[in-house]
Amino acid sequence: MAQLDETDLAMVDALRADGRLSVRALAEQTHISRANAYARLERLQRDGVITGFTVTVDPDRMGLATSAFVSVSIEQDSWRRVAQGLSEIPGVQRVALVGAEFDILVQVRAHDNHELRDVVLGQIQAVPGVRATRTWLIFDEWETA
C-alpha cells in the first residue's frame, strides 16, 4: 500500500472535488511547486491511488429519475459469474460483494418504475446463480465529503 503524506491527501481531496484541475491550480491549492505536483500526481497514478478521472452527472437530468438498491442472494461459489453477469446489465451502476444476510448489493438507475421492474425482475433475476432479490427504492441521495 502506498504511503501518503498530507500533501498527497490534499491533492487527492482537491482532485475529488474537481477532477478537471490543472496541475498549476493543483500546485497552488496544495502550496507546492508545479514540478512537485507533476511528480506526485504521476506517482499517485503509478501506485494506483488515483485510478482515473471521471465525470459526475446528475441522474435526474440524465432522465434516470428512479433508482434502487437491490440485494441479491446467490448460489454458493457463483459470485464471480453472477458479478460479471450483473455488471453487463444496462442500468446497473454499482455491484458490491457484501457480508450480510444477502451476498451482493446492486445499485440500479432507470428512467421509471416500469424500467426498474424490467431490470430487476427480467434481467437481474435471470442471471444464472441468482436465487433471490429484494429491492429498496431510493427517494433521495447525496455524496458526503
TrEMBL record:
InterPro entries membership: ArsR-like_HTH, AsnC-type_HTH_dom, Dimeric_a/b-barrel, Tscrpt_reg_AsnC-like, Tscrpt_reg_AsnC/Lrp_C, WH-like_DNA-bd_sf, WH_DNA-bd_sf
SMART domains in the cross-refs: HTH_ASNC
Domain HTH asnC-type: residue ranges: 4-65
Pfam families on file: AsnC_trans_reg, HTH_24
Keywords: DNA-binding, Transcription, Transcription regulation
Gene3D superfamilies reported in the protein's UniProt record: 3.30.70.920, Winged helix-like DNA-binding domain superfamily/Winged helix DNA-binding domain
Protein name per its UniProtKB record: AsnC family transcriptional regulator
Organism expressing this protein natively: Ornithinimicrobium pekingense
Lineage: Bacteria, Bacillati, Actinomycetota, Actinomycetes, Micrococcales
